[in-house]
UniProtKB/TrEMBL annotation:
Pfam families, alphabetized: V-set (PF07686)
InterPro entries: Ig-like_dom, Ig-like_dom_sf, Ig-like_fold, Ig_sub, Ig_V-set
Highest taxon in the source lineage: Eukaryota
Domain Ig-like stretches: 1-104
Source organism (scientific name): Cherax quadricarinatus (Australian red claw crayfish)
Protein name in the entry: Ig-like domain-containing protein
PROSITE patterns: IG_LIKE (PS50835)
Amino acid sequence: PTRSVWATEGGVADLPCNLTSPLLADPALLVLWYKDGISKPIYSYDMRNSPASHWRNPSHFDTRANFHTASLRLQRVHGGDEGTYRCRVDFKTNPTLTYTTNLTVIVPPRRLEIYTDLGVFTRSVVGPFTEGDTLRLTCRARGGSPP
């Protein structure tokens, strides 16, 4: 099943990958990350030689990605990071396993506007009102994702 991960723009996203083989004493040797629409790996963690090595596709993540505790950790997430990622794990003995994660990036609204019940845009102060009056305000968010 596909896992869902949500991250806020500018924040951190951890895309999980299970490195546990169904066979006992069968270590993971190579982890490759792919993103839908990109045919070549965007990140790899190679444990075939000591010490383990990291590789990043420089045109995709630059230095924002690291493999951290069985997850691909993305720093300073932005809208272009949103999509479906596949983690491919090669083991010493067990056949390759693949895991899928869907990353949704939450982009905060760029502008918030407050309106009175008469549809009048309020800049900073609402009122004055008499005690017992009914106050109805509407907040409209502009931009952002999801809306």
